[in-house]
Amino acid sequence: MTTQALPDLGEVDYIRAGGGPWSWEWLKTTDHKRIAIMYLLMIVAFFFVAMTLGLLMRAELLKPGTQFLDGAAYNRVLTLHGVIMICLFIIPSIPAIFGNFALPIMVGANDVSFPRLNLASWYFYVAGAVLALWSVGAGGVDTGWTFYVPYSGNTDANVVLPMLAAFLLGWSSILTGLNMITTVHRLRAPTMGWRQMPLFVWGIYATSWIAVLATPVVGITLVLVLFEKFFGVGIFNASMGGDPILFQHMFWIYSHPAVYIMVLPAMAVVSEIVPVFSQKRIFGYRFIAVSSIAIAAIGSLVWAHHMFTSGMADEGRIIFSFLTFFVSVPSAVKIFNWLATMYKGSIRIELPMLFAFAFMFLFSIGGFTGLQQAALSVDIHIHDTSFIVAHFHYTMFGGTGTMFFGALYYWWPKMFGRMYNKTLGMIGFVLFFVGFNTLYFPLFIAGLKGMPRRYQDYLAEYQGYHELSTYGSWIIATGLILLVLNLIGCMRWAKWWGSDAETNPWNAASLDWRVPSPPPVHQFHEEPIITDGPYDYDIPHLGDDDSKAAPAEVQA
Amino acid sequence: MSNAAAHDDHHAHYGVPGYDPVAWKMGMWLFLFTELLLFGAVFIAYAVYLETYTWHFTVGSAQLSIPIGTFNTLVLLTSSLTMALSIAALQRGKKELSIKLLDMTVACAGLFCVVKAFEWGAKFEHGIYPGSEHLLAMARGEQMFFGLYFTMTGIHALHVIIGAALILWVRARIKSGAVSTERITFLDNIGLYWHLVDLIWIFLFPLIYLVA
Amino acid sequence: MSHTQDHADEPHLIPYGTYIGIWLALCMLTLVTVGVSYADMRHMTIIVALLIACAKSTLVVLWFMHVKFENRAIWWFLIATILTYVTFVILTFADYSFR
Ligand code: HEM
Question: Closest chain B residue to A528 measured between Cα atoms?
Fold first, then answer.
């Protein structure tokens, strides 16, 4: 076993050091672990805000006709929900929190390459968040989270604020990405080769590249829309010779790769969790690592599949439809590798593992329905129906959202040195899983039958699906509240339940589980010497044929 | 290629991210990529409309002065040279020379902006500015050409101004000794930024002035 | 596994003259591109102009920006970025060139 802990020097941990948990020092910190916690607070808070908005919409949709949100109000709630969930929750979630917290430790570094820049990107995030909230105060925005022109150019609503917000949040994620890439290149322990990096690191690395290369495109696109508003330069304005579809192209050149910014980190967390809870070396390390890069690359080629009904040239649509099918290949490679990792492993059913299972199930549904939409003829039929709503919630929420909670449940003992109550977590998880499917599955069927998306009213024949879906939203909300309550209640200052966490409660092999829980400010005083792979679990009773399956590249 | 990074520099105080020139440069390059893609996106828009309105773009471009554009190109190229020389000078320990060359760079940046301002001013006088009646009365393709002209040169000029400000900052730091032959990366990075500004102009110039 | 990167930390001293030579080349190319634009080549004009611009930017990147002497990682970064951008352009025209 390679999981000896580093000696605990009895140093004060990063939470208690520097003024303790409740001090203003946090706002000036450059410690990657503290910055991660500050992101965590913001992101979870925004998740619950946006979840409440989602619940509001679901409640409105319980019956046909207007309950308490009229059409205009519904559009505003819808946009806010979308913008918060995308820009403030899902994109920064895993990279900013766990990338910051775990990545440096996993590569054997004491911090990221540019600690002050790291803090700056947190402030960018906060500034973006403030602007987004301010836009609510300024009357809200009703464009949908995609800000499509010409509507976003014409509407009276104040779109300037949310666009600036998106711009700032984009910079926040670019700077985090820049930091992660440099950290991996420059601060990786000298003895850790590329093929000894944990797969989480690979995933964040690939994600960071997308963030760096794609985000500027949407940034300038939004700026161009603002130029139209302020200076009358109509780059996308048809009456001035512009092409509104070009906006869609430029928007999706970023925003489609952005869905891989969302899901790659989630897959990376699954790749960490599955081998740990199977106590088995990951199957096909190299394939998983390469498939992260492949997803990042191929994912940049398929953006226009969001625009099949927008009026592109037929040839263009065929090309993009064709390309889209390819993205599924590297994702499938990962799923098969995880399954093969579990095969003959000694599987322990703990909460993180359950979340990983849920990810595989939900994301597969999201992925397969994605393939259906990639087919041009099918998409013409289901575009802009609630089928799409179900599809992207299955991928983003069922995929990344699930693994966000999975990652919380996996790293919580390391982050705060406290283990949560597993029974309570189990109840929360079951409610989450059941609620999720009740909430979104009916929307697939309603969509196929013609229920459009972004509608506040509907024909009576859809009522059954909507009712079911709304009940589901109540179940999942209960589950999510329990899940988070469980984490809060086990903290050191609350101690309503739970116990102190050991250094390595999961018996994991990567570096992050060798430092004390919670880690001291300087986790490494000496250079950690890496002699083995991050997933080298010896399982003698499995006999020889298992060691043959071991990938050759991770030997000492 | 496995140990791509050279790690030797942080053995003494393990893992404390200190002065690591390679990391700084890497970070700067990553930042430059974001700038490249940002301008690149506008170039995509330009290409699309050039294809759609080829004739109108020719007409629009013919209204710009090639001599002025060429002059400004040469000014920027010269500023790139003085920037590169300034770094070379500081590498050789010639602080005074380095500062002088930086001054010349800033002077070129200023000259560029002044010329640009006159160019814009002349257009304004002819009633060509974003949203003007004269412009709105033109053919759509020409409107688009001038829209892109103002957008692209405007964003570029903004970068020139930011670049000049950064150069003044690094100049102060060289003076104070914070940036020196031994710790030169800050100057290196500002240099990279400045060359990027030049690089973008290298593409802007033929696209805007020479399609006639 | 090359060890060239280890030397990346030490500045590579390029003679002043080299820079001046590069600058002269850049100015020449600028004049060439202007001269060529007066020749009537129809749609080739823009292609020639872009080719010259690429040549100029290669000079700037390799010499002024020192990429020629930079460590391997930067090369790969640059190649990846350029490829990404070129793909964006090509795929956008997968739509526009058929309209
Ligand atoms: C309890 C959790 C959630 C509930 C109840 C919920 C509910 C909804 C509802 C009812 C809609 C409107 C559908 C329509 O009328 O077209 C919607 C849209 C949307 N949701 Fe959620 N959602 C939840 C979580 C999430 C999460 C976690 C994400 C992202 C990761 C997300 C992203 C979006 C987006 C992007 C839209 C589209 C907004 C637009 O059309 O502009 N949602 N959601």
Answer: B14
CA of A456 to the centre of ligand 1 (A): 13
The domain in which residue B44 lies consists of 23-209
Q: Which whole number is the average pLDDT over A351-359?
A: 97
CATH code of the domain in which B151 resides: 1.20.120.80
User: How far does C28 lie from chain A, in Å, by closest CA?
Assistant: 33
Contacts of C50 in chain B (CB under 8 A): 203, 206-207
- Cross-strand bridge partners of residue B111: none
pLDDT in tens, A133-165: 998 888 888 888 888 988 888 887 788 898 999
CB contact under 8 A, B20 and A112: no
Check whether A556 has a pLDDT greater than 70.
no
Segments making up each domain of chain C, as ranges: 3-70
Regarding an ipTM greater than 0.85, the answer is yes
Inter-axis angle of helices B21-52 and B140-176, to 10 degrees? 170
Separation of alpha carbons A245 and A341, rounded Å: 44
Q: Do B33 and C60 touch (CB under 8 A)?
A: no
When pLDDT is averaged across residues B166-178 and rounded to a whole number, the result is 95
What residues contact residue A484 under an 8 Å CB cut-off, 6+ apart? Answer: A44, A48
Cβ atoms of A393 and A440 within 8 Å: the answer is: yes
**Nearest chain A residue to B8, by CA:** A190
Residue A396, token pair as written in the block: 């983003």
Instruction: Return d(Cα A379, Cα A304) in angstroms, integer.
Output: 12
pTM of the model: 0.92
pLDDT of residue A4: 63
Report pLDDT digits (tens) over C30-66.
999 999 888 877 778 888 999 999 999 999 999 999 9
Best residue among A47, A74, A76, A81 to mutate for probing ligand 1, ranked by most atoms within 8 Å of CB: A81
- Give the lowest-confidence range in A29-33, A458-462, A525-529: A525-529
**CB-based contact, C32 to chain B, within 8 Å:** no
Residue nearest to atom 40 of ligand 1 (CA): A144
The Cα A110–Cα A120 span in angstroms is: 18
Domain count, chain B: 1
- B75 within domain boundaries: yes
Would B11 be classed as within a structural domain? no
CATH code at A10-548: 1.20.210.10
Residue B189 lies in a domain: yes
